[in-house]
Design brief:
The chain is α/β, with parallel strands linked by helices and 319 residues long. Helix 2 crosses helix 3.
Amino acid sequence: MFDTKKELMWSKLKVGLVVTIAFLVLLVTVFFAGGIESLFTQKAEIRASILDVRGLRIGSPVWISGIEIGTVKGMKLHPQYGTMVSMAVRQDTLQYIRKDSKATVQTMGLLGDKYIEITHGSNDALPVRSGEMIEGAVQLEMKDLVSEGSASMEKITEFLVKLDKFLQKVEAGEGTTGRLISDPSLYNNLNNAAQSLGRIVKEFDESKGSLRMLMKDDKLYTSLTSTATSLDELTKKMNQGSGSFRKLVEDPALYDNLVATSKKLNSIVEKVDSGDGAAALLLNDKTVAKDLREIVAELKSMTKEMKENPRRYFKFSVF
């Protein structure tokens, strides 16, 4: 009898163990469906600085290119970065995360669950290592768009009100713009100016003056270009050389000598005007000038006679 009870109790114990193990297997299967292998995968920790996590929770998935590579392990406030988010990702995925990659808080599905999407970054950047931090960003949500749209609508409404006031003033002829639009004299003046300009262009096209030749004659343009080139070369030589012309331009001694000479010449002219000296007498005294003319005439006559009759004035004798 005792053996029968013992066997019955042992049978019940075995049934209970089997049911418990089956229940545990079912429980693990439900909670870790499709991710049991991740429990045995080597993990690496990276961090992201995100100003506003928008309701992100610990345990939220971390994705890259739509593939889940880890989960959010922790979040804490930071005085500089706002929120510091720690993520545990698979070790083999670090090679796809660059130092300039960005971690963005995204919304998944209609229920509004949050997750982190990591961008690849540029190919020139180095891969991130375990323990390093990447830059974070926040995705614009519907409330942000509504807020921005409301601010934009207010600005548009304000602009339309100002535009309406401006158009009312224009219709009433107020201000400079209103007068320009409503005053027909502006159109008449512009029309007259256009006609005058047309006549000038026509006269210019039909004329044969210098201006028309300057615009249409290639030889004149070539000549002016050649002259300009020659002047440019001359200027370069003057700037680079040390000849007389450059000294004439740059040497201040020449200017000083010219000033001194002009002062002396001015003094002489003043003395001549005042009647001092022989030069003043020669210029101002008519008698002296007459005597000089007579002397010059006699000398010319004597010279002429000496040429014609030299023997009267020059006698040579050997003995």
